[in-house]
Every structure is written in C-alpha cells, then in structure tokens.
Design brief:
Helix content is about 20%, strand content about 30%. It is an alpha/beta fold.
C-alpha cells in the first residue's frame, strides 16, 4: 500500500498522484485528497493504481447515487458534486488544448446540463442469459442493470422489465433511442427475433422494436427549434436533449450568409437547417447509409454525398462545418481541408485530445481559433463538447 496526494484530474478522468516510483493514475478521486492506494499495473513507464481509502475527503465528495458506480464502465465522476465536475472538466480541456493544440486563450464558462436523466441514446449489450446492460469496467463482460440514472425514467423502466423476465430473449446488441416528444422508445435489435421471442417483447408498452429486414419503421420524427428531423435508434444523434438548442444556436451564431457550405460527417443533418438559412448551395457528407436516408427525408433540397469523408471530392465552398468521430480528422481529410482554400471552419468535437491535435495542424496551416464554446453533453464523465470557429485570412 502507498499513500499520496491527488494533484489533478487528467484526460480520461484519472487522478494524478506523484510517487517515488513515478506518476500513478487512480479513478474515483478528487484533487487535493490524501489517499491510500496500491499499484495494479505498469505499462510503458506509467503506473495504474487502485484506490483503497480516502484519508482526507474533499468537501466536494458526494455519495454516488447509482448502485452500479465503480462496476459500470460509463460514469467516473458520480463521487464529485456537479459544480466541481464542471471545473475539473474545464481544466482538463484547457490543459489538453494548451499542451497539444497550443491554444492558450482562457475558455468560456461551460454550458451546463442537468446532472442526471440527460441521455436519450445508448448501446446496450446482451449476455448469454438474455439480460442486457453495459460493459463492466476493465473487462469485456456485460454488467446487467435494472436502471441507468443518465436515462429518462421510461428507459430505466424498460431495462427493469426486460431484465426481470424469467427468460429474456438473447440479442447481442440493442441500440436504444428515446423520443422525449413522443414519449416512445425505439429499440434496434441486433438480429431478427424468433416468433416465440416476439411474445416476450409484446408486454412492453410505448416501445417500438425494429431489426434488420424488419418491415416496421423505426423512424422517429423530432422537432428542435422548429426544425423537423428524422431519427432512428441505429443512427448517430446528439445524446443530450438539453443541449440540442444550445448547440444549434452556437453554430448559427458562427455562420454568415454565403454562396456555398459543406457539412462533413453530417449524420441525419443536425446542422443542415441552419445552413439552409445561410447558403444557396449545400452539400452534406455522411458514410452511413441509414443516416443519409433520414437526412434526405428531412432535407430533400440538399445534395448528400454517401461515402466516407476521405472519398469526398472537396469542392470550393465558403464554409465547412464538421463533426467528426472521437478520432478526429484523418491525415487525408486534414490535407484536403488545408489545401482547399477554405476560409472558415466550424469544428464540433467531443474529444479534447484529438481536437487539440487537429487544432495544432490547422493553426500551422493559417487557421486561427476565433471563438470557442463549451458544452457539458456528458455529465458524470470527463468529456465535454466544443464548438469552435476557425478562420483563415
């Protein structure tokens, strides 16, 4: 056993403790706490520890309300009160952007979210007995759960009903989307159910099941800021409904009237209606076919390019809007953007590390981060969402 003081929280939610053997990373701690721990693993000069005891708890330490906290691989900050979470997450973002992206401008205040019941999309996994849940921390095993405090209560009731069945049908994966306007749950099953399994699914009210080859439609209409979208459980959509309007307003504030705009990684077209108000020619780029179909259904006047962004032809345009995956921009896409003569970029990111990396490259190629806004889409986790306006003279 060893003893030390938590210096700060770094990317991934890990608490940093300095020891005579080197830097140790621990979960479930708060800066300033005196803790007892043991070394569990050593990898490439990094020590990974397990928290054994908190000798001097922080005043911001709270009792985690979720019975699965510490076992589930999702939340890592439930032991920290929400105001302190925001300060820690903002510092993580600031550190990453300074260290990786060489961005030293102080960050604005984080746009807050309700700490719980703030998520309407999730991917659940099934275990051999049919019970569903999330992946257990540090393993590839499924942790069956009766509720998730990040979900609306309706989704937790669905999970409880499913896992309390004496013999629930097995599905490797269930993609869930809750429409807060319809009060309906859409569930995409990993494979078609058998006829006898359908009877087990019937007791669930306000739940629509779909599966590959299903004739039943999983398309869910959703209106945000008077814009009509079509969403499904098997496509990407921003998870936090309390930030939908805030994100749209942020991007809209960065847009100016222009002749042409391109929306890279556009999904079902979350930002497309904003572009329709500002530009005459719009191209949306998305690789996932079902997302493109829903985007075309909502915005038939827009040209959509169904292919990976790496295969896009990158025509001239006044503005690029991009919301890439957590991995950020590939080297090929970055090269096309930097060599394309584009003057204005709006970059939406959920990863401070990859955004910092991409920001450094864009800065080297003449872009400057003119404005940046920060949103907490993922309370109880170390992640923040950023929307940045980058301009080039």
């Amino acid at each position: 056993m060893k003893q030390g003081t938590v210096e700060k929280i770094v990317n991934g939610g890990w608490g940093l403790v300095r020891s005579d053997e080197g830097v140790v990373f621990l979960n479930y701690v708060i800066p300033g706490e005196e803790v007892v721990y043991r070394i569990k693993d050593r990898a490439r000069g990094v020590l990974w520890g397990e928290l054994l005891q908190v000798l001097e708890p922080s005043p911001q330490r709270v009792a985690p309300p979720c019975p699965y906290f510490g076992q589930c691989g999702g939340c890592v900050f439930q032991h920290i009160d929400y105001p302190r979470q925001l300060k820690i997450k903002k510092q993580i973002l600031q550190d990453d952007l300074e260290r990786i992206g060489h961005y030293k401008t102080p960050l604005p205040d984080v746009v807050e979210s309700p700490p719980y019941h703030n998520r309407v999309r999730a991917r659940m996994k099934g275990q051999d007995d049919g019970k569903i849940g999330f992946i257990k921390k540090g393993t590839n095993q499924v942790l069956p759960i009766q509720q998730c405090l990040l979900f609306p209560d309706a989704v937790s009731r669905f999970l409880e009903q499913w896992n309390q069945q004496p013999d629930p049908p097995f599905f490797h994966q269930l993609d869930i989307f809750y429409n807060p306007q319809q009060k309906k749950i859409y569930v995409n099953l990993s494979h078609p159910p058998q006829e006898h399994q359908l009877k087990k699914l019937f007791p669930f009210t306000n739940v629509i099941f779909i599966w590959p080859g299903s004739v039943q439609s999983g398309v869910s209409p959703l209106t945000i800021n008077d814009y009509l979208y079509y969403v499904g459980p098997d496509v990407f959509f921003q998870v936090n409904p309390f930030q939908w309007s805030n994100m749209l307003e942020a991007v809209d504030a960065f847009l100016e009237p222009a002749e042409s705009m391109i929306d890279l990684y556009c999904g079902v077209g979350f930002f497309i209606p904003l572009l329709l108000h500002k530009a005459r020619e719009i191209v949306g780029v998305e690789s996932y076919g079902p997302s493109v179909a829903l985007a075309q259904k909502a915005f038939p006047q827009v040209e959509f390019f169904k292919a990976p962004t790496e295969k896009f032809y990158f025509p001239e345009a006044d503005t690029l809007v991009m919301d890439p995956p957590r991995s950020g921009l590939s080297k090929h896409v970055m090269k096309r953007i930097c060599n394309g003569g584009y003057r204005k970029l709006i970059y939406v990111s959920c990863s401070s590390a990859t955004f910092g990396r991409d920001l450094a490259v864009l800065t080297q190629n003449g872009f400057k981060a003119a404005h940046l806004k920060v949103f907490d889409l993922f309370p109880q986790t170390p992640h923040l969402e950023t929307i940045s306006l980058l301009v080039r003279d």
